Amino acid sequence: MTAPLDVSGSAAEAHPEAVLVGAGKAIQGRSLTRIAWMRLRRDKLAMAGGITVILLILVAIFSTPIIAAFGHPPLEFHQDQIDQSTLLPKGAFGAMGGEFLLGIEPVNGRDVFSRIVAGAGISLLIGFLATILSVVIGTTLGVIAGYFGGWVDQLIGRIMDVFLAFPLLVFAIALAGVIPDKGFGLEGNSLRIAMLIFIIGFFSWPYIGRIVRGQTLSLREREFVDAARSLGARNGYILFREILPNLMAPILVYATLLIPTNILFEAGLSFLGVGINPPTPTWGGMLSEAVRFYTLPHFVIFPGLAIFITVLAFNLFGDGLRDAFDPRAH
Amino acid sequence: MLIVVSMVTFGIFFVVPQWAGATPEAMASRYVGRAATPETVHLVAERLGFNDPVVVQYGRFLKGLFTGAEYDYGAGVEQCPAPCFGYSFISGQPVWPDLVDRIPVTFALALGAAFIWVVAGVSVGVVSALRRGSFFDRVAMGTALAGVSLPIFFTGMVSLVVFSYGLGWTPPGGAWTDLSENPAQWAYNLLLPWITLAFLFAAGYARLTRAGMLETMGEDYIRTARAKGMRERDVVVKHGLRAALTPILTLFGIDFGLLIGGAVLTETTYTLPGLGQFAILAIRNQDLPQVMGVVLIAACFVVLANLIVDLLYAWVDPRVRLS
Questions:
Q1: How many helices (H) and strands (E) does chain B have?
Q2: Which of A:235-274 have CB within 8 Å of B?
Q3: CB distance from A185 to chain B under 8 Å?
Q4: Closest to A170 (Cβ–Cβ): which among B288, B298, B303?
Q5: CB contact under 8 A, B161 and A300
Q6: What is the ipTM of this complex?
Q7: How big is the A-B interface in CB pairs under 8 Å?
Q8: Model pTM?
Q9: Which segments constitute the ABC transmembrane type-1 domain (chain B) (predicted)?
Q10: What's the CATH number of domain B96-316, 1.20.1200.10, 2.60.40.10, 1.10.3720.10, 3.40.50.1820?
Q11: Mind listing the pLDDT tens digit for each residue in A151-191?
């Protein structure tokens, strides 16, 4: 599972010495994290989503050995398998079988299975890093807006409104379209990946920012913050040691729900041909090539299913996480 | 708001490339094509003012939008009338009239889909909330979860394969008829894109409506309304749904911004001749003035949509006063 949350501290822990008279054994204090984890364990759909996410991450990390064991290199052409007059694979069902698990692409005969496995890495990398970027920006600005209030809050709120009102995809397309081949010390697709992470992360932070701001507003008025302040704690201490730990749960939940959105975003950009450049395999890119060959079901369905399963798994897990931390919200 | 949008657009197309290391000459060379000599490029860079400070360039960009612009090509002065987005690199035609041609397609797609998804999403959500835990609820919520997890270009492609090429119920991709020409054909051609685009959004609305209704139907005033003998239908619609409508409206405001993006993907999948397809073609051709035009139009559209949503707030929630 993801890194264990530390929401312990002042408000979070019950005291174990509060033993009921007559109870057989000492009642154990459970932290909020522990309670949430117990609820999550009982949620079968969420657990299925979580396990799928872990499997996907493992596939992405070990893509090279997996491809070596079950497929052919993702960029390798197999033109001997292609009927040169129709440009379609010779074998039935797109040449699916033991040799090519999910068949081969028309025209150049690349291994669909290997390309999907290789594409997982890029999707997840962009999904995770873009989310981290928007969490960092969103949390920083959200906490500042919620904690300090006044004109700071108004200014940041206005910026968030502007970002939320922007035609996101159109701007991202325009930006991704003007990315040069070289720049910022990077080249080719590594530059494009970096830029995509930046663009997606930079445009989606207000979703996190709004939630963090709202939570901070209510946390600011809580007794433990007053207590810290009356003990002479500085703003920095209150923000980092008192408020931020209590924000971890909502941030984790909404970050989990933002990852699939970002993965869909990257797939959309690659589908439109302004994401990662071919021949590097991406799920969106594979679908965009499939447009011309819609008569071959496997060519459309497998990359589409890959996106669907990934996004669904994250959504299920994120929903479960939200219910576990805040059962009232359901 | 529009000023911010214009600044960002300007920034993307003029400032970012220069940060990334493009010289004024490199900027100008996009305008003159590959065959130009270095002297010509230098001259054009000078004429178009890529050597000027950014603020001056931005001022000129704004002036072009509001009062039109004059381009001095040396051989004569070219007049570009009021909303001047410049000239296409590829065809040499002014960008604005081309854009105007394509607005109705995207508008029809967006409005039709928005209507379907709001009606379908909200009614499914209400029924799901009222029959919580029923078979209908579980199927609807399962479908909704799948709906928010499916990329539109995938559902679009699958629906084309199944309904157009397989069953022959709907027209193939790329079919478009003007509304003025034949309204029935127009609606028939748009049916599949509408439903596909609406499905993606309806799912989210069903989930949100259901959650909102579950919360409001537990409130005291609902019990009061029932206790005073109000008809159940009125309790649900006038008291329950009305209170649950505000967050839905907020989401609608945000989604309308995203919808332009959704339209890009939908139009590409169904090859509809709208703004989205125009944008993609322009980007593939590296046709900067066209790209800029689409981005600005899309942004104006979003600002307008937000204004309408703000007005709707006052209608849905009487506590909001228009000032």
A1: 14, 2
A2: 260, 264, 267-268, 271-274
A3: no
A4: B298
A5: yes
A6: 0.74
A7: 146
A8: 0.78
A9: 103-313
A10: 1.10.3720.10
A11: 988 898 888 877 776 666 777 777 776 666 666 666 667 78
